[in-house]
């Protein structure tokens, strides 16, 4: 078989959710936007619903509609982008809960679907999504008389516990939501780890569920095994790959494996990232191409039929470092060509 095998451990995702739930004082939700951070929104959310999760979060109404088909009626499906102009049908037909981001969205939702539940997203300093304090002040009384299910905001710097933005946003959120009737939510993975003050009634972990930083105790979730297509010996001084960017400094054995930047293995990893044959490290030799990697396997006693690029020895965050990015981007870039296998479905 010529494609990589992506193994997604739903037992590990469930364990990570329970661990974050133990750290949280209120309810623990789950963020499954971007196809569950590349791991499969339907599979992840169905498993977490069985673990007891009742509140899910997605980025768009389209994602919410697909998730409702997977989950069936019951769990709340909250949409961060709120109620966009063309979302009314999806919100109504799939019982989605938009997080209203502006007075315009609030007016649209209350007019189009007067009885449909909604949340409100507040901006507490990130300046990305959410109502500013004056808009919230002006519309709060009206919004609190309807089926308001959640008031939320998002932290910009929660992965850095020492950052002064954290306390500033906590103070702003506390002030803006004082006396509010609905449940409150401020924290994603990073905010949960900042402690009880940041947790309010509902938390929204994403990346920590999928084994990523800043949740250092997370169990790894993904293994990516890439098949070896061909092995050759390269003489001292010969070069490998596009632009001849790797030159053999010794007699070198090169394994060509099936996966490349079209599968989310970012080209910036060229000549830098490592693959694993069990515990043995093998370095990329040359450029990442669209469908192939070339790997220095000279020091392996035997070349296996697969090499791992994500495994317990190399987490998404460690691979991200070789790619100049973050674990989130490694996860959400995981290619669609891989054969996906689930543990614990
Ligand atoms: C993506 C997102 C989350 C989840 O964040 P993680 O850092 O992955 O835990 C929570 N809330 C909002 C508003 C988000 O956009």
From TrEMBL:
Enzyme Commission number(s) from the entry: 5.1.1.1
Q: Source organism's superkingdom?
A: Bacteria
The answer to keyword Isomerase applying to this record is yes
Q: Where does substrate bind?
A: 128, 290
Known catalytic reactions:
L-alanine = D-alanine
GO BP: any one term = D-alanine biosynthetic process
Which keywords annotate this record?
Isomerase, Pyridoxal phosphate
Enzyme class (EC, first level)? isomerase
**One Pfam family cited in the UniProt record for this chain:** Ala_racemase_N
User: What cofactors are annotated for this protein?
Assistant: pyridoxal 5'-phosphate
Could you name the active-site residues? 33, 242
Which pathway does it operate in?
Amino-acid biosynthesis; D-alanine biosynthesis; D-alanine from L-alanine: step 1/1
Q: Which residues carry this modification: N6-(pyridoxal phosphate)lysine?
A: 33
The answer to whether keyword Isomerase applies is yes
The Alanine racemase C-terminal domain covers 221-343
Q: Which GO terms describe its molecular function?
A: alanine racemase activity; pyridoxal phosphate binding
Cellular component, GO, one term: cytosol
Matching HAMAP family, A to Z?
A: Ala_racemase
Q: Could you say which protein family the record assigns here?
A: Belongs to the alanine racemase family.
Q: What does this protein do?
A: Catalyzes the interconversion of L-alanine and D-alanine. May also act on other amino acids.
- Official protein name in the record: Alanine racemase
| Organism expressing this protein natively | Roseicyclus mahoneyensis
